[in-house]
Amino acid sequence: GEPQRCGMQDAAVLAQAHACNASGDVDRARVLFEQVFLVTAKPAHLLSAANMRLKLGDLDGAACLYEGLLREETRLSKKEAAVARRKLVESGMLWDMKLG
């Protein structure tokens, strides 16, 4: 297939997403990670978006993204798959705490 590439503009948006996350603007970071994923289709960017949803308390949204990533686990690195599995469990545990 065609190699995935992250152009200068995508790299700038990705850097901005990381900066927003670091500064606490998690929702803006989520939006930016999702935008970059739509262009690059790199699972790491969707994983970051899912992590932002988890931070924001969007447990269902995060879980759906983690499950979607794990359905296509062959596209993930071992580290990405492990993070997605761990975070999926974490989202379920947070959901249980929310209900309890």
Report on this structure.
This protein has one domain (8-99): Serine Threonine Protein Phosphatase 5, Tetratricopeptide repeat (Alpha Horseshoe), CATH 1.25.40. Helix content is 79%, strand content 0%. It contains 5 helices and no strands. Helix 2 (26-40) packs antiparallel against helix 3. The N and C termini lie far apart (48 Å).
Counting DSSP H or I runs of 4 or more residues, the number of helices is 5
Mean pLDDT: 91
Distance between the termini: 48 Å
Structural classification: mainly alpha
Element-by-element helix/strand order: HHHHH
Overall outline? globular
Number of domains: 1
Give me the CATH superfamily.
Answer: Tetratricopeptide repeat domain
Give the percentage of residues in beta strands: under 5%
| CATH architecture grouping | Alpha Horseshoe
Quick one: CATH class?
Mainly Alpha
Find the count of extended strands (DSSP E, 2+ residues): 0
- Give the helix level as a range of percent: over 70%
Query: Segments where pLDDT lies below 50 for 5+ residues?
Result: none
CATH topology-level fold name: Serine Threonine Protein Phosphatase 5, Tetratricopeptide repeat
C-alpha Rg (nearest Å): 14 Å
Keywords:
mainly alpha, Serine Threonine Protein Phosphatase 5, Tetratricopeptide repeat, 79% helix, 100 residues, 5 helices, globular
Structure described in brief:
The chain is mainly alpha-helical and 100 residues long. The protein contains 5 helices and no strands. The mean pLDDT is 91.
